[in-house]
Design goal:
Elements lengths: L2 H6 L1 E2 L2 H10 L2 E8 L2 E8 L1 E3 L4 E8 L4 H8 L3 E10 L2 E14 L6 H10 L16 E16 L9
Antiparallel strand pairs: 1-8, 2-3, 2-6, 4-5, 5-8, 6-7, 7-8
Length: 157
């Protein structure tokens, strides 16, 4: 064991990163506009076939996250699992965020999202409420990087 890998872990390859993303469903979305940052916990589905993350925003019309999503040039999604100093993994996806028209969100994409997403809203998600908007987004991956603690075995993709 080298001192470096004990401190910062070992690199994960792209397939290992994608396997990790598919096995989770929640992370932190970070966006930035004009020297202002905004990070939020978010549920997602990972579309490995097309190299993108699918998100559904549920928000009020004057939503801060929608404003940041619509104007951020680059975003990141950080997904991690931490059990102990010797057992952790993290993946960072960097990309561009784009809104999706409802008509382009196929049953496959919606199913993928709901199968993987850690949906804190539960059944309340389906309630229609006045003043609440639902918007689909995709993050087109430009880079995926991941690291794991040195003692953790690689995932089998």
């Amino acid at each position: 064991m080298t001192d470096r890998s004990a401190l910062i872990g070992n690199d994960m390859n792209k397939k290992e990163c994608e396997s990790f993303l598919t096995s989770r469903g929640h992370g932190v979305l970070s966006m930035g506009v004009e020297n202002r940052g905004y990070g939020i916990p978010i549920s997602y589905g990972y579309d490995e076939e097309n190299g993108r993350i699918i998100l559904e925003f549920v928000n009020a019309p004057d939503s801060k996250k929608k404003k940041f999503a619509d104007t951020s040039e680059e975003v990141t999604v950080t997904v991690y699992e931490y059990e102990s100093l010797d057992s952790w993994e993290s993946v960072i996806v960097t990309g561009t965020i784009h809104s999706l028209e409802d008509a382009t969100v196929s049953e496959r994409l919606a199913s993928l999202f709901f199968a993987q997403a850690d949906d804190a809203a539960g059944n309340r998600r389906w309630e229609d409420r006045e003043g609440i908007e639902r918007t689909w987004y995709e993050i087109r991956n430009t880079e995926i990087t991941g690291r794991r603690s040195e003692g953790l075995r690689p995932r089998n993709p």
